[in-house]
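Much of what follows relies on a compact textual record of a protein's fold. Here is one such record, which you should read through line by line:
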Amino acid sequence: MLKRTGVTVLGWLLVLAGLAALVLPGPGLLMLFAGLAVLSQEYAWAERRVEPIKVAAFRAAAEGVQSWPRIVLSALGACWLFGFGIVWIVRPDAPEWWPVHESWWLIGGSATGLTLIASGALAVALLVYSFRRFRSVE
């Protein structure tokens, strides 16, 4: 009973994070695939959906390294995440143009900064993986 609950909670957390990452920065299809893979251990409906999501996730990963401009843009996106993570950790004062109360400037503080840096590291790892798996060295 405890294992089934843990699998269900972890699977749904990954599915929800994957759905969020479809519109936010992050590997949405891969997290969705991971969540369904976890849920498929306990639920037949999830097992039927794993393969189509896996195919779509790998297709997106292959397309992401299809050309050098895409690779460079992905790397710049990872650098952007690292940079904003550092800004969140350093937490400079709110600029004068900031339209609301300064307590709303860089909400989340260091925890948000560390999450952004972790997302940047994950983006780099996925970029390297995709490059090595789907693109031959030229």
About this structure: The chain has two domains: 1-64, 66-138. The chain has a mean pLDDT of 87. The two ends are 52 Å apart (CA to CA). Residues 18 and 98 are 32 Å apart (CA to CA).
